[in-house]
Design brief:
The chain is an alpha/beta fold and about 450 residues long. Among the domains are: about 130 residues, Rossmann fold, CATH 3.40.50.12160; about 60 residues, Nucleic acid-binding proteins (OB fold (Dihydrolipoamide Acetyltransferase, E2P), Beta Barrel), CATH 2.40.50. Helices cover about 35% and strands about 25% of the residues. The strands form four sheets. It has a six-stranded parallel β-sheet, with helices on both faces. Strands 7-10-11-12-13-14 form a six-stranded parallel β-sheet. Strands 15-16-17-19-18 form a five-stranded mixed beta barrel. Helix 9 runs parallel beside helix 10 and helix 13 packs parallel to helix 14. The longest helix is centred in the last third of the chain and has 26 residues. The radius of gyration is 22 Å and the shape is globular. It starts with a strand and ends with a strand. The mean pLDDT is about 95.
């Protein structure tokens, strides 16, 4: 077993990446050698995303590339895990016979056993209960050494009509607060300085365990962990953002002044069809309130255009909102028809051509907003965590509190002869911008 090399490709969101790190921990404990390049492994694992069509296409492409290597004899076996494995189960084995095993999320803890079995057999499928997904344990960190994700819950109780996550992941399940604080301490001891708190809906944290939403209390406890300098929160549902949460983000020096708040749309009609509350008026008021309570906050959102029934009037309301509110960060996606979701059978689908035009229009509008924001940053000084050195540009690069890892842009800066290592903090004065990235020099 010690001579068997295992490589994993993990796709999709940070929550899935945490699952991958836990599975790698099981494999390491079982004595397998781990390699970062799945193409160079004896056993290749693809930890898939199955949320929307583009994510499924990416996963299938990755699986087929590794299947080709298996045909050529360069890898011995191929395993598929993650959301697509949970969602499509034995269909994957039927349609891609080169796959040796498909493992649902409830059987992630059996990954070492499955890998061993694939060396002598194929056609393996293993599906535990969704609630058996392992949420804690040894993790083999796959992020850069100074930052990591902390998954505080899994599953989702929201019944958004377009979303397959509750079907794939099951009911919302919070992790105990003490366990999370302990894990944050272990990450800090490993050298992690920045943790990003994630769940499908972070603002729902604690409702199942403690009978109330406890994200602010958890964040306060995490701020007490020695060694952690920055704490960032992703996926806050707008209707659950409270003054208590905003006070923690504004008051605690370790909290990044950054809120990821997926709103999807602003048309009351479309939001109702999505089973999401709110409208343009309430969302505009909330955003103004957040900016008042947390001065200097960076707001990121996600929009979903071309939902069934979205008229040109609905779209114009959405793009006008983008112009008005001016999110610092924004991503836009076209609605994906996901089988077994309520929205799949809705009438009045938007044509593919119109959908692409609407996505492009919102992206173009946000580009103008981003250009304005970048211009407003010139002359300001930001604390930046150093991520590396760009040999081509001959300068260092990193992120401030306003840039989430692997999601947002970078800050490139001259060092004025100073030496930095990855994970150092430095002050940078912004002098220019380059697309969505900022440019400056150390102070």
């Amino acid at each position: 077993m010690k001579d068997i090399k295992v490589g994993m490709v993990s796709l999709g969101c940070p929550k899935n990446q945490v699952d991958a790190e836990i599975m790698l921990g099981f494999l390491a404990d079982a004595g397998y050698k781990l390699t970062e390049d799945a193409a160079m492994a004896d056993v290749a694992i693809v930890n898939t995303c199955g949320f929307i069509e583009s994510a499924k296409s990416e996963a299938i492409e990755e699986i087929l590339e590794l299947a080709t290597l298996k045909k050529e004899g360069r890898i011995k076996s191929l395993v598929v895990t993650g959301c697509m494995a949970e969602r499509y189960r034995d269909q994957i084995l039927e349609q891609i016979p080169e796959v040796d095993a498909v493992v649902g999320i409830g059987s992630n803890s059996k990954i070492a056993e499955v890998v061993e079995r694939t060396l002598t057999e194929n056609g393996i499928s293993l599906y535990g209960e969704k609630e058996d997904l392992v949420l804690c344990g040894r993790r083999v960190q796959t992020t850069l050494p100074y930052y990591s994700y902390l998954k505080i819950a899994d599953g989702c109780n929201n019944k958004c009509s377009y979303c397959a996550i509750p079907m794939i992941r099951g009911k919302f399940r919070s992790r105990p607060m003490e366990e999370l604080v302990e894990e944050a301490g272990m990450l800090a001891a490993r050298g992690v300085k920045e943790i990003t708190v994630v769940a499908q809906d972070t603002t729902e944290y604690g409702s199942d365990l403690y009978g109330k939403r406890c994200l602010p209390e958890l964040l306060n406890k995490l701020c007490e962990v020695d060694g952690i300098a920055w704490i960032r929160v992703l996926y806050c549902y707008p209707e659950k953002i409270t003054d208590e949460l905003l006070d923690v983000i504004a008051r605690q020096p370790k909290m990044c002044k950054y809120i990821d708040m997926p709103i999807q749309h602003v048309s009351k009609k479309i939001l109702k069809a999505m089973h999401r509350p709110g409208d343009r008026e309430t969302l505009t008021a909330l955003i103004a309130h957040i900016r008042e309570k947390v001065p200097g906050v960076t707001l990121r959102t996600t929009l979903l255009t071309a939902f069934p029934g979205e008229t040109q009037e609905d779209f114009e309301e959405l793009i006008d909102f983008v112009r008005e509110v001016k999110f610092e960060r924004l991503g836009c996606f076209v609605w994906s028809a996901e089988e077994d979701t309520e929205a799949y059978d809705l009438p009045d689908r938007v044509s593919e051509e119109t959908a692409e035009q609407r996505e492009e229009s919102i992206t173009d509008e946000q580009s103008r907003v981003t250009d304005e924001w970048c211009e407003s940053m010139i002359g300001k000084r930001l604390t930046v965590i150093v991520e590396g050195y760009d040999r081509l540009a001959e300068c260092c690069y990193g992120r401030s509190q306003g840039e989430a890892p692997d999601i947002d842009g970078k800050i490139f800066f001259d060092t004025d002869g100073k030496k930095f290592t990855m994970g150092d903090f430095t002050e940078v004065e912004i002098t220019d911008s380059m697309g969505c990235d900022l440019v400056g020099h150390t102070v």
